[in-house]
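User: Structure please.
Assistant: Input sequence and predicted structure:
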Amino acid sequence: VVNFILKDNFSSRELEMEYGQPFRGGYSTQQVEGTYLRIDGDSRLNLNLEYNNSSMLTEAERGVVQASSSVPDLGSDPDPAAYRSLVADSSGLEATANWSTRLGSAGNSLSLNATFERDDSLRLQGLDSVRLTDAGGTSLLRTFNAADPLVVDRRSDSYSMGSTLNVQLGEWEVTGTLDGTYTDSNSDISRRIDTSDLVAQALAGTLALDAQLGPFADAGFDQSLTNTYTVNSLVTARAMPFELPAGDVSVALRTGYKWNRIESSDTRTLGSATQLSRGRVFAGANVSLPLTSRDEEVLGALGDFTLNLDGSLDEVSDFGTLVGWTAGLTWSPTDSLTFTANRINAEVAPTLTQLGSPTVATPNVQVFDIANNQTVLATVITGGNAFLPRQQQGDWKFGLMWELPFIDNGTFTAEYFDNHSTGVTDSLPTLTPAIEAAFPDRVTRDSTGQLVQLDQRYVSFAARDERRLQFGLNLSGRLGPESTSSSSSRGGFGGAPTGGAAVAPAGGAQGAAPAGGGFGGGQGGAPDPARLAAMRQTFCDTDPAQLLDLFNRAIAAQAAGEEAPVGPNGEPLAIPPQMLQRLAGENGQVDPQRFNAIRQRICSSDGPPQFGGRGGPGGLAGGPPPEGGPPQAGGAGAGTGAGGGRPGGGPPGGGFRGFGPGGGGSGGRWFVNLTYALELENTVLIAAGLPRLDLLDGDALGDGSTPRHSASARAGLFYNGFGMFTSASYTGSSRLDGSGLPGSTDLYFGDYVRFNVHTFADLGRQASLVQAVPFLADTRIGFDVDNLFDAHQRVTDSTGAVPQRYQPFLIDPAGRTFSIEIRKLF
């Protein structure tokens, strides 16, 4: 539960417990989370402690057929399937503290945070094995030492601290951040027992082939260590320093320094110790220029045009100077129609992890060898590559957003992507004949041609080209009449009770007001100036760090297909999905610069708030990237104001949807989101002189092939404290080609649909129930089912058989699962 409380003095305690498991059993997950919140005047303290745990699931518990090369010839030997993990035994602990306070009366603020995370996992990697051969040539494959199976035992600890300072310097809003993270990861990998004496004794006749083997002394373990250090600093300044005839010009400046270091070693590889450090100084600027405006009558017949320019310069200690720029143009010929075009050029250095992560050799990994049409247990090597080049990318992105005239709260989006990159870094692709021919030194075979070792450390490709079309349809509406009494008694965002604010649902503006509602909408769709002013004051006086955290939680819920966070009244938070899409960066977090731009636009005016900005900067298209990184393209609606309106004009249909009274009330809401993606091109050039790989026509990079078609859908219903979300994803069919030589095979990946259902009930809103059982006040329960129809992708070879490597439970060990969640606020 996200409780967004605006009282001057308030404290609460929250406990959340969750249990989940597959319907067919085998393992379970548990999660416990406790939260303490205290608001004392201008200061806010939030403490959070979360623990999660997952038990182990083995291949034997799912009946996974073992590779023939690992099945013992003696029936009394232990079954290796019982000693191979499908799901590791794991646990995690996270403790977080956040403190923020307002500084003075000018809206300045300071926030501090600290986090500790620990993750543990234990994964079984099979058993020791040996092939014993006697003097007559008879041989048996034996497995042994079940009391001490091969394992990988991993622990990772992470310590983080951060701070944010927001100050107003004249018309400039300045934000400074400083944070640091230290991570310590340690993996203990079991060593195999030396079997040379057993082989010699069997050949000499002193050890029977079916003799009991053992006991054995502990073979010990190898150790892989990785320590990483990161320090980030960033200063941004935003303002609208001057005005053009078509509206205000928005300027954003940024500069900062980032330092990180990685130290790694692995006892299995002599001389593997690696120490890499990188310092990075960066600076950038973003300018948004309104060119024409219908409202300001500046070439209004052309519609509203806004130009967005962004440039960045990074000086990276081990890669020299990296340059990036973006140009974006937004055109809104009408209130309901917006077009965007973006050109993105950037240079990107590989990460230190890609360059210097430790070399780790993991034995007994199932690998499908398409050249021989067999699944084998091979040693797989992973790690960094110190010789990776910089990547250069030049992308085009075009978008359209249309607010549908024939249905309230309906939008249609269309996007076209054309991405071209050179010097692309990736792990070694799926082992196909083409990949083996291009990287022969990465593949080791024995004298019979069987695969025994695969080096999957990072490689660089000469070029990659992708083109894609993507369409979206978002619909939402209200169920039943809106309660007028609740509208008049609720305040803040989204109609939360006085003293509390709810902001919500991602995923379809399901909390949006009816058409014409708007921010603080009055009668007949006309905004109430008094309520507008009160809501803006609440929005602008709240610590920006609190708002930023709330928006990030809403984005996470939207991305996971889960119900949006709710306020203390049980109503889903009402942040419009279009706004979330524009604020979110590629890492799934709100871009602080974009967030501050919207906040400044809302809060800097002396008159009534203009959500969408009358004559304002027009936008977010190609806005400044987070932390001075490469520029990013805006979404299909990018470049419009926060309310989805045209640049240089007020918001259509009521503006900043989802923050008005429509978020409350005793009625219900519904929403439907549909997306479809069509891959037009996806090719890779490994090196000059080699044929291009067509990932849509039989070639592959990852562990599988690339479907041409994919789609997703989400729908939700909310009514008086009860809610249900459903989500579905469709993955189209695809193909992976073999060599065509005898023994080789093609692979066919079938299409499939996966459905998830999430339900919740806010028991605290059921007056009769709370009266009978007072403990249920402020209590919420949830029941979720993932993969409702137990769908598994079917992978077959040229004969129609399922290769061992692609058995359904190796792809998805869980299948259909359920989880039960209880949340209680004290």
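Confidence is low (pLDDT under 50) at residues 483-532, 566-572, 604-665.
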